[in-house]
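## tool: complex_structure
## caller: assistant
## args:
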Amino acid sequence: MAESICRALRDGALEGEHAPALTIRDSLASPFGFDVFTHVLTQLSSNILAGKSQSGGLVLVAFTRSPSFYMRLLKTRGIDVASSRKWIQILDCYTDPLGWKDRLVDSGNITPLSKEASTGESLCKNIKDMAKLFSSIIELGKGLVGQGKVRFCVAIDTVNEMLRHASISSVSGLISNLRSNDQVSSIFWLLHSDLHEDRVAAILGYMSSIVASIEPLNQSANGQICNSENLSLLERNYWKGKLHVRFKRRNGRVRVMQEEFDVEQSVINFTSLSSGDELINRNLLPKVQFSLQLSEKEQNDRAKVVLPFEHQGNGKPIHIYDGRRSLEDSHNEATSVSTGILQTLENSSKGEIIYLRDSDDERPDSDEDPDDDLDI
Amino acid sequence: MNQRASNLLDEALGLVDEGTNPWTLSGRVLLIEDCVETSATFLLHHLLKRALSTLSSNVVVFLALSQPFSHYDRVLRKLGCNLAAQKENNRLLFLDMLSSEFPDGGESGLVALYGKIEKVVSALIEENKKSITIIIDDLSLLEVAANGASNHVLDFLHYCHTLTSVFGCTLVALNHEDIYSSMEKPALILHLEYLADILMKTEPLATGLATDVHGQLTVLNKETWDGQGRSRNRIFNFHFRIKENGVEYFSPGSRA
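## result:
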């Protein structure tokens, strides 16, 4: 499932559509948002380097870690950072986000920026100015991929720092402008949801095509005073958790999935939910006492049922009536139309009943080609 | 001090074999949270003593908003550490901020304070001092000095955080959790908990007051290295008893 997220960001945007956007949200109960963020960052970087991604480069907006931290991180995960200038640009909003160091240098209190500092246009000294931030991101991206049709993706290591210094409307405006920019392939960001009002998470969720929420494995252990009895439960919450993902498709359908993960040596490993867990990959059907779903055997049996007035395959082409063509046109149509069943009940003396089924039954969830369903 | 008992805390912090191993908290942020019932200043004293008793290149920059120097000197003497001597040897830089006030909403004052710390740290690095520990006692009083501007205090802490990544400094800060308890979204304390690599929290016992046990201490150490090539977040919980000349730490239920 984490792979589905990475795939969606890798495949990027369709022509004329907004870029896919991922919100990774966590809380102190399960503070693994940064681990998930770096996992997605690593996967996307790997895809870019391998030429498998729609985007030709990545712009990372770093608020909570230094640029050199990210370079070291990517290197330890096997990403080629020697050629980093060709595929990644880091907008350094960590070293001097409010221009304090500049003010101190001007007043002679400190020496100019030291070895760790970024130089040139990749250093941001005023994170309160969303317009400037937007133009810096676009400039860096175009510097990577040029002015043409090649796209770049954007990663923001936390939107919380932006929200501390700017209103939610201006931050939303920045994200919206990035998503609608022709050269942005995909965008993802981390949000610590307990640092702001609930409406902030909701607003960012509405702007996202994918929302990945990190939840603790044991909800019951949270909020309690630590003691010897709940210590093991609390400890488990600090290296394992659950990833709950909502995919929003273009047609409006929502797909919800869950996965477990554990974190060791700063590397996150995803596994399918264990059998002991109460929630498995669930659909949107309500929980009632009777079964609303069909088993595989029941689906096969249903497919074999002969419906009255339906054509039994005597050599004539099969059609589905789609409401746009006349009945005569559908009779004269070649076999290139989509599959369906045209049924006639011929009775030479009394006329005929022509029944066209509107559509095949749609299965609750088709996994044959999930990528096609990952629409906004 | 009972060497064996204090190892529970040092073990939780990843500080073992006092005096022989280098300071292993370089580049890390330690947040101490306490409440009225269980003050955690003893942890500050312990860390101050440990920071000054390891390799000779270790230096402490102490931002004191809560108590004067004489108080810490008196307390640390009972723990076997001469702060006056360390100050004379330039191993302890004591910034007395008891009467500090930051006008104009606090930002310019905090900028100046950061500038002072950065200047001191840069100078120490040039003198080849490898381990620098910045201790803040305490953050709630820094908020008061900044006229309640918690956003500016967070900005100040962010800039202090850059010192941990650039110069490998250790940042230790004490804050009182219960003064934020009535707030729906206590942003400052939550931000700090995200920022911290090691979170130490003192709380009263669930069972109430006791003569021989003064409280419990929970240490969340994010990604400790247990020496076997595995690293994951570890959480420790033990009880403590504050004595005249030190603090005893013991596992719950092991106190006779």
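## assistant note: Residues 1-5, 225-230 of chain B have pLDDT under 50 and may be disordered. Residues 143 and 153 of chain B are 6 Å apart (CA to CA). Handing back to user.
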